[in-house]
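Board notes, transcribed. Complex of a protein with heme C.
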Amino acid sequence: MKRALRAALLLAMCPLLACAKEIRLPDDGLEWQASALPGYAIVQAQCRGCHSAHYAAYQPPTSPRAYWEAQVKRMKAVFKAGLPDGQVAPVVDYLVKTYGAEAQR
Ligand code: HEC
């Protein structure tokens, strides 16, 4: 009987404990590289919520435009990234010119 009471008490406290919990994402904070290209603002709005720039920064620097296009389309298809179709091209342009084969180095 005592045990049941304790279990019930614990259960009753659960929502309180859950409230106190804080969700922390792993710190992978590599900022997306600032750029005047329109894709930069889109990346801030559409990609930053899920991950920092580290996935882009660690791609081979020789990656061509088609590679980035495939990645962005994969983000949409697999992870349901919310960017509209019209924003794919500017994002790809920003990525290839910042992290890929068309970057000024
Ligand atoms: C809903 C979450 C989500 C959003 C939004 C998102 N991504 Fe990702 N992205 C992921 C996850 C998870 C991975 C790692 C797993 C993987 O690559 O399959 C990833 C991986 C990547 C990679 C590395 C792929 C590889 O093969 O290593 C690139 C590049 C990338 N994302 C770019 C972007 C860009 C650009 C955007 C915005 C248009 C974006 N992501 C939006 C979740 C997201």
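Residues 31 and 62 are 21 Å apart (CA to CA). The chain has a mean pLDDT of 86.
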